[in-house]
Design brief:
Number of helices: 7
Strand content: 35-45%
Helix content: 10-25%
Largest sheet: 35 strands, mixed
Mean pLDDT: 76
Distance between the termini: 146 Å
Shape: elongated
Number of strands: 42
Low-confidence stretches: 236-240, 263-281, 383-393, 405-410, 605-609
Length: 635
């Protein structure tokens, strides 16, 4: 520390000018050194203090960030925390929300006309056009950017180079929040773009018209209590037959919506697949081009319910779940091509359009791992189809086939592993199912009436089963199992624990096929019946095991072709015109083992003897009216 008093004394006592100057110099120099030392010491202290302050600020920032993250990650599963999360209004934390200045407006127009808004303000509207119209939303005021586009939903342009940007406070954006007016056209593309931008769901409330298509290329959920009317759609070419407002190509879920087609606005087009597609089929509620989709609680009128189309036989769409749907006035309810899917608890009412030719509740090509259960299918109280333009007015319920397959490609192209159960069919259909390249298809608990046949087989089939069902056959013309084409030795059909009631006289029952009937009951009230048909089973077989026949008259049990076996069967109140046809040959194979005939008469009409023709039975001889037991080689 400088000695100021001593320096002043020296200056005052100095006599010569030289001494005075020296004293002054020494004093000033001492003061300068002392000040410099003091300042340097203070700088060191300040540097240390700055370092401490910076460290404290960094620690505080870190703590605030950790706190904000903890606030943002509050579990929304607890009611009180969910309420806090909702109160943020799109900001990271509730504290940031409280720091904002919040304006309230009755509608969007009032917000846009306000000149007092500044960057950082938060705006709440009570409606889009007017209060409580369902279009209320929260917006954040920010500076306008070059990339901003006013879309009337997520971005609204304001004065002073500002925009109001939508804050998604829920998990969805609603149709009302983009200004949609009920009974007018809904811009579904705008709605999807906003939902995709904010990664939220779509909620459609109200009734709207639609005439455009949106390709949902990202996983999306679309729901609400809404109704979409498909109106004024005009395809550009005759090949463009499947219009849908929603094409799901990125996965998603559509639920709780109703789709209606305006019949007179949709043109009729002849589809190349070979049947006429009318207004009920060239429009569909949802078209699915990707895996992992759900369709729930959907109602449609005058259109196809769902189109599912994979890329190819080797690139199928899978994990499609359709449940609790109602397809009304449809010619075609489900179209699936190269798809794996599950359908449950669904009602299908077929259309009454007399200009239509074919109905297919299910029209499917190359489907695998499919489960269809708990369905109600009806023809909407149609009268006898012969009253219309063609007697084949209503086609099969399940039209499942592969049109371009060859036997050598069976394992690749076949529709397989299909389970269809608990199906209640009312009204009149031609056929339960057309079989063409099937494998491992099981029908269970089917209740329905069919005009032509139970199954129509036009190509190879493997392991087809019908279990625990009640079937009514209405026609007098065709066969129960109608095989009209080639089959292989390992192709087979099984009917197990099934009751078939023939409502009219029949002259024939089973065509060419490999068929097993186990524990089945066949009831035919009138008419003479030949169980195998005349051209049947040249290289196939019919096997009846533990079956119960209540038939007015059986004209033939065997017609001399293929292999036929009756084992442990009961023929109740059945008049036997003849068991064997007179045209049998040495290739004929017929066995009747341990069967019960209520009436035995004219057991056979042949002199041919063969160990392949074997008959053991008991019953009542109509000539003696006594019980008779026969065990012999037929001769």
């Amino acid at each position: 520390m400088a000695n100021i008093a001593e320096d002043l004394k020296n200056i005052k006592s100095a006599i010569l000018g030289r001494d005075v100057r020296a004293s002054i110099h020494d004093g000033i120099d001492a003061i300068n050194k002392d000040c410099t030392e003091r300042l340097n010491g203070q700088d060191d202290k300040l540097t240390k203090q700055d370092t401490i302050i910076e460290n404290n600020v960094a620690r505080q920032d870190s703590l605030e960030r950790k706190y904000d993250e903890q606030i943002k990650n509050i579990a929304s599963s607890e009611p009180q925390n969910a309420e806090i999360v909702d109160a943020r209004n799109g900001f990271d934390t509730l504290g940031k929300t409280l720091k904002q200045k919040i304006y309230h407006f009755s509608n969007v127009e009032e917000m846009k006309n306000c000149v007092n808004l500044v960057e950082g303000d938060v705006v709440e509207t009570l409606g889009y056009y007017e209060e409580n119209d369902g279009g209320g939303a929260t917006y954040k005021i920010r500076l306008k950017e070059d990339a901003d586009v006013e879309d009337g939903g997520s971005i609204h342009f304001l004065s002073n180079a500002l925009v109001a940007e939508l804050i998604i406070s829920n998990v969805f954006v609603s149709s009302k929040q983009i200004g949609a007016i009920e009974n007018n056209y809904l811009d579904i593309q705008k709605l999807y773009d906003i939902a995709k931008k904010y990664a939220v769901d779509i909620c459609i409330n109200g009734t709207y018209k639609v005439n455009t298509t949106v390709d949902c290329d990202k996983y999306i959920k679309i729901y609400g209590n809404g109704k979409l009317i498909l109106d004024s759609y005009q395809p550009s070419t005759n090949d463009e037959v499947d219009y849908s407002p929603f094409i799901i190509s990125g996965g998603g879920c559509i639920s709780d919506l109703e789709f209606v087609s305006i019949a007179d606005k949709i043109p009729r087009i002849n589809k190349k697949a070979g049947f006429e597609i009318g207004y009920a089929s060239n429009t569909c509620a949802v078209k699915i081009n990707s895996s992992n989709c759900k369709i729930e609680n959907i109602k449609t009128d005058f259109m196809t319910g769902v189109f599912m189309v994979g890329n190819s036989v080797n690139s199928m769409i899978d994990n499609i779940n359709i449940s609790n749907c109602y397809f009304n006035h449809a010619e075609l309810a489900i179209f699936a091509q190269h798809a794996s899917y599950c359908i449950t608890d669904t009602c299908i009412n077929m259309s009454t359009d007399v200009q239509s030719i074919y109905y297919h509740p299910f029209y499917c090509i190359n489907i695998k791992n499919v489960i269809i259960s708990d369905l109600n299918i009806s023809t909407n109280d149609l009268v006898n189809p012969t009253d219309y333009i063609t007697e084949y007015y209503i086609n099969d319920v399940f039209h499942i086939f592969n049109p371009n397959s060859g036997k050598s490609e069976f394992d690749t192209y076949v529709s397989n592993n299909i389970k269809i159960s608990n199906i209640n069919i009312s009204g009149l259909f031609n056929t339960l199912s057309t079989i063409k390249y099937h494998s491992k298809v099981i029908y269970s608990n089917i209740n329905g009436t069919f005009k032509n046949s139970l199954f129509t087989i036009s190509k190879y089939y493997k392991n087809i089963q019908l279990n625990n069902s009640v079937i009514h056959m209405n026609s007098i013309k065709t066969r129960t199992i109608d095989c009209t084409s080639e089959f292989a030795n390992d192709d087979s059909i099984e009917l197990n624990n099934t009751k078939i009631i023939y409502e009219n006289s029949h002259s024939q029952l089973f065509g060419s096929c490999n068929l097993n009937l186990n524990n089945c009951k066949l009831i035919i009230p009138t008419g003479a019946v030949a169980l195998p048909y005349n051209d049947s089973i040249a290289n196939g077989y019919l096997r009846f095991n533990n079956c119960d026949f209540s038939i007015s008259t059986i004209s033939k049990l065997y017609l001399g072709l293929g292999e036929v076996e009756y084992k442990n069967c009961h023929f109740r109140n059945t008049y036997m015109a003849s068991i064997l046809d007179s045209t049998i040959t040495e290739e004929s194979k017929c066995k009747v083992i341990n069967c019960h005939f209520d009436i035995l008469r004219n057991l056979w009409n042949t002199q041919y003897q063969s160990e392949n023709l074997f008959f053991t039975a008991y019953g009542y001889d109509s000539n003696t009216n006594k019980q008779k037991y026969i065990s012999s080689i037929i001769q």
